[in-house]
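Following up on my earlier thread - several people asked me to post the actual chain instead of describing it. Fair enough. Here it is, all 518 residues.
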Amino acid sequence: MSAKSLLTALLPLVADLSRELPEGERYRRLLEAMRALLPCDAAALLRLDGEWLVPLAVDGLSTDTLGRRFKVSEHPRFEVLLAGAGPTRFAADSELPDPYDGLVDGLSEHLEVHDCLGCPLFVDEQLWGLITLDALDPERFEPIELDALQAFASLASATVNAAERIERLAIRAEDEHQRAEVYRQASGQQNREMIGQSKAHKHLVEEINLVGGSDLTVLITGETGVGKELVAQAIHAASPRADKPIISLNCAALPDTLVESELFGHVRGAFTGATSDRRGKFELANGGTLFLDEVGELSLTVQAKLLRVLQSGQLQRLGSDKEHQVDVRLIAATNRDLADEVRRGRYRADFYHRLSVYPLRVPALRDRGRDVLLLSGYFLEQNRSRMGLNSLRLNHDAQEALLAYTWPGNVRELEHLIGRSALKALGNCKVRPKILSLGAVDLDLPREVVDNSAEPASAVSVAPLMTGDLRSATEQYQRQLIAAALERNHDNWARAARELGLDRANLGRMAKRLGMKS
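Reply from S.P.:
Thanks for posting it. Predicted structure:
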């Protein structure tokens, strides 16, 4: 490889260092340049987060890879790469399992990767993550290319450094990371990540970051299974109270008398079985956040008592006249229409308005487009680890089925479906496979909802009933087609144009005529 070709590949990245680019676009350009420099079938940029490697950008790997979280101790090749000071190339006959087996995009056969290069990335002399290249051809890479990868890795580290500095300036990422770390220790549970790239998901994250910095009471609404508790945890983690605990209570799980005891505490002898004084959830959450799930199930009596605490910050334990002062930020969640419950007289209007200072609706999974594949990747990796498999992947028809399904049970339904399908598919194998592929038949989705023979999944969301005259209906349909293509291609207009069979310039002119930004 000549110095000229190396310089040609690296110069655009040097220019990008001084440009303000979205993080995803900056990393996409990085991988694009690397594949131009070192031709391969797949490339990935992964950030080290504790004991996990988190994919930030992939090129040539299946979409669901972005949703996966690779536990380093379960992937010996990653361990070797992270332990090295420079590039490492694995022998084609290496017996170490490759974490990307089965994940190279567009393949249904010959799923195993045979030539693999990788290099650790360091930012401020600290190990930051990895950059990896993989090829199906065992002779693709040459020894001389290790030097080129080392040169590229140095610039990649500078790119990552620039992106992180911009992010810190914009959203104070360093401070948020410290608060999230304290939150994980205080809550005693692993901080679960919110995964998604759709516009609906990004809007939700923006809302979380906005309200997180305040002390406003938040009412989270949404269908069953969309992840309302996860949203509550994210709000707490983004708040100044993140170093204090978040205490949760499912209001539907207990009768009224026990709900009061759980919320406010009790003294010895307050009721049968109260053998000692006990603090309630409000006191446990003092200084932090109280999350009330299924808040629509509270009785009118409990609502009245809660209202007093929210207004004054004072409470009494059951059986006691002593006042206790608490400082608690309240987050509530429900899948009910509380405004309608108020109109029907089943919910207190004053309590409802006190809860809904900042209403926040979590989008249904069917409204999040290709996020279903990212979430699938996350759940596939969890199940791969639990089942002791080298790789657990989705066939193309399975991906199409997931995209076409309407998900009445949302993310929770998807999680259970992936776990159940993987277990059944493995049980049907006479010989334990290295790579287990799930097809649409393994998912066993309801036939009345999934119809892969009628239209591609991408068309399902862009073909609503049109109204008005022919011209306006046609323009409306064109806008929806363009918007859907942009969503699938992460707002890359050139790729969207290729998918739609148009020239990039023609698509830009059409978008301008339709009132869309290009």
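The chain has four domains: 3-171, 199-361, 366-457, 462-513. That should answer part of your original question.
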